[in-house]
Automatic annotation (TrEMBL):
InterPro entries, per the entry: Nict_dMeBzImd_PRibTrfase, Nict_dMeBzImd_PRibTrfase_bact, Nict_dMeBzImd_PRibTrfase_N, Nict_dMeBzImd_PRibTrfase_sf
Record-given protein name: Nicotinate-nucleotide--dimethylbenzimidazole phosphoribosyltransferase
A molecular function (GO) term: nicotinate-nucleotide-dimethylbenzimidazole phosphoribosyltransferase activity
Residues annotated as the enzyme's active site: E316 (proton acceptor)
Length: 354
């Protein structure tokens, strides 16, 4: 399937299923709308699957790992070797995403999209496009063909998970330097100002932050990404991890699966997917409000709002297992709560105050 076929195959949510889900929620023994975002999520999932009652118990976070050539410009305090080391730690069950996934009874899948060394682990899926991207202050991060190949990896991963019965997906990444590429994507797509678009990433000094801003401005000047062409932006100033995640968002919309957004990097990928086809947004579920500065502006550009605010900024997909608990709660509410009718209770005293 080529990219155009994927984009044309994405359809809107099922409106009649949303209306039925909404009516059922209003019939439950509670004031109308009183379960807030749990109700919104239950309605969204009904629109995605076409069913009022849904199971979201088989969950998987897709973690795209890759290195970024721009790290040579001193944009991260962490050495680039951390990408490979932490990828292995995730797979060994030792990292934040490993623990939170275990706790949420969720799986994760780690894909090597372009780590700059040839590491191996029995559970690491190698889809390496190349050994890290090029330095974006000197030219494009990757070719358009490489970007499309990376998108295809994400799309195919979702297809495989759908075939294996997964019904709730999450997006995560590991890649030193990827807050730089995320901010560059935000600025290129929205024209946002450097001071409101660039944060300290995994940890950065004040002087380091000023350098990071200069590096991003230089990358945008050298590459001249076209804000109306998301693939141009992605290939010039993005990363292989972000490109893989773009494919996940396209795949989730195509195969009608709810997909959770983690932090600033997955939200940058979500914004690229949204600009490729705005219908992808209907399948996205934001999780937590990342502390990284660009996150808020990316969410504003997407017109989405996160549900959790935990002052987190780890990445790896850590917001996803936390949000899976909430999404499962939403699915349980609409399935298991009693209705006024079932209990022969009169609900006429209730006023809709939404
Ligand atoms: O998810 C977030 O919002 C987030 C915010 C800051 C940092 N990170 C993680 O930290 C790494 C990128 O940070 P940096 O400073 O190297 O660009 C990368 O591996 C991300 O997973 C993630
Ligand atoms: C230790 C460490 C863990 C991470 N996990 C995601 N990004 C990271 C960056 C660092 C530096």
């Amino acid at each position: 399937m080529n990219l155009n076929q994927i984009l044309e195959g994405i359809k809107p949510l099922d409106e009649s299923a949303k209306i039925k889900a909404s009516a059922r929620l209003d019939s439950l023994i509670k004031p109308i709308g009183s379960l807030g975002k749990l109700e919104d999520i239950a309605i969204q999932i009904a629109g995605i699957t076409g069913e009022t009652i849904n199971s979201v118990e088989k969950k998987c976070t897709i973690i795209m790992a890759a290195d970024n050539g721009v790290v040579d410009e001193g944009v991260s305090t962490a050495p680039k070797e951390i990408t490979a080391i932490q990828t292995i730690n995730i797979l060994k069950g030792l990292a934040g995403i490993s623990v939170l996934s275990r706790q949420a009874k969720a799986d994760f899948k780690v894909i090597d999209m372009g780590i700059s060394s040839n590491i191996q682990h029995k559970d690491l899926i190698s889809k390496k496009i190349k050994l890290g991207t090029e330095n974006i202050t000197k030219g494009p991060a990757m070719t358009v063909e490489e970007a499309i190949n990376a998108i295809k990896v994400g799309f195919d991963t979702v297809e495989e998970l759908k075939n294996r019965g997964y019904n709730l997906l999450g997006t995560g990444e590991m890649g030193i330097g990827n807050t730089t590429t995320s901010s560059a994507i935000l600025m290129a797509l929205t024209g946002s100002n450097v001071d409101e678009s660039v944060g300290k990433g995994a940890g950065m000094t004040d002087e380091g932050l000023e350098n990071k801003k200069r590096v991003i401005l230089k990358a945008l000047e050298i590459n001249e990404p076209d804000k109306n062409d998301p693939i141009d932006v992605l290939s010039k100033v993005g990363g292989l991890d972000i490109a893989g995640l773009v494919g996940c968002f396209l795949g989730a919309a195509y195969y009608r699966l709810p997909i959770v957004i983690d932090g600033v990097i997955s939200s940058a990928a979500a914004l690229v997917a949204y600009r490729m086809n705005p219908l992808t947004k209907e399948y996205m579920i934001p999780s937590h409000f990342s502390k990284e500065l660009a996150y808020k502006h990316i969410m504003d550009a997407l017109g989405l709002e996160s549900s959790l605010n935990l002052n987190m900024r780890l990445g790896e997909g850590t917001g996803c297992p936390l949000m899976f608990h909430i999404v499962e709660s939403a699915a349980a509410i609409i399935k298991e709560m009693a209705t006024f009718d079932e209990l022969s209770m009169d609900s006429d005293f209730l006023v809709d105050i939404r």
